[in-house]
Amino acid sequence: MTIECPAPRHEDERVLLGHGAGGRLTAELLDTLVLPALEGQPGPLEDAALLPGQPDLVMSTDSFVVSPLFFPGGDIGSLAVHGTVNDLAMRGAQPLALSVALIVEEGLPLSELHSVLKSLGKAARAAGVPVVTGDTKVVGRGAADKIFVNTTGVGRLHRALRPSAALARPRDAILLSGPVALHGTAVLSTREGLGFDSEIASDSRPLHRIVRALAPLGPDVHTLRDPTRGGLAAALNEIARDASVALEVEEGAIPVPAPVAAACDLLGLDPLTVANEGCLVAFVSPAAALDALAAMRSVPEGADAARIGEVLPDGPAGRVLLRTLVGARRVLDMPLGEQLPRIC
């Protein structure tokens, strides 16, 4: 007989940075505190939710606290637009409108605020998604770190496209739209002055055009997820858990740019657990895999799309296996907590 002892809990426990990292600590916080308090519905937690009584409308909200505010390839303003547009797209929706709320620290130079807002507006126009409402609050010095941005978006579902983390099926092909770990390493390099700034830029960009290209495949597209916090490893583990399937991915098929691999090696990071802001992972039926890959590659954001693995026909539910470069297999675990704080 096996006796499992729960981890001790104390009244003086505190929120940790890892609770916001998208890994196991985040899942624990949601399951034990957030969802019970809000009477959240059981089932997979998606990037966006269907609106009650509105079967074709989807809503998502996200907050952005990145440090530094500006980094190669983007800034907190454009990131806020791209993040919410992408969350809507991962549910199969075409974004319709955004709201923007700002929490600004007293003392922030107006020139920096102007730059953030100019970038945010430019990103929204480029994505074709208007900002229709918002709010601004100013807090005292030390009560925030320069500026925090919250964006909420509403979108309309593409016809016949209803992706969900729970719908991944045995033998599905796993497709990745582009290279991984660019965003996290770009932000960290800028923050810490590591010298990779000229080689590595964030992949922050909207992904709804890739989803629109996939829309004609309809029910053959089972799952879409953008691997942000926790990286590709967290996204794959969430899907394997929610769909109760086992996955296998090929390390050699996952595109990791050489400068990113070098930076991660220097810092002791696994590129598969580093955040992304401009790629998605798609689970599609095997018969539609080639068409889906061609559709992803037909738009600039998916030009480097690759097939990286499949859902196994059997195996332990919730397990993700990585076939390494030398042909061995190892379990690709869900990240525990925060590797790189304040990256999104």
Characterization of this structure:
The chain is 28% helix and 24% strand. It has 344 residues and is an alpha+beta fold. It is globular. It starts with 23 loop residues before the first helix and ends in a 13-residue tail after the last strand.
Q: Using only CA atoms, what is the Rg?
A: 20 Å
The tally of strands reads 14
If strands are numbered along the chain, what order do they take across the biggest sheet?
A: 9-11-8-12-10-13-14
Question: What does the main sheet amount to?
Answer: 7 strands, mixed
Strand percentage: 15-25%
Beginning-to-end CA distance, first to last residue: 44 Å
Break the fold down into its secondary structure elements and pairings:
Blueprint: H1 24-38, E1 49-51, E2 54-64, E3 70-71, E4 74-75, H2 76-89, E5 93-105, H3 110-127, E6 131-139, E7 147-157, E8 173-176, H4 182-192, H5 208-214, E9 221-225, H6 231-243, E10 247-250, H7 258-267, E11 281-284, H8 289-297, E12 306-311, E13 320-323, E14 329-331
Parallel strand pairs: 5-6, 10-13
Antiparallel strand pairs: 1-2, 2-7, 3-4, 5-7, 8-11, 8-12, 9-11, 10-12, 13-14
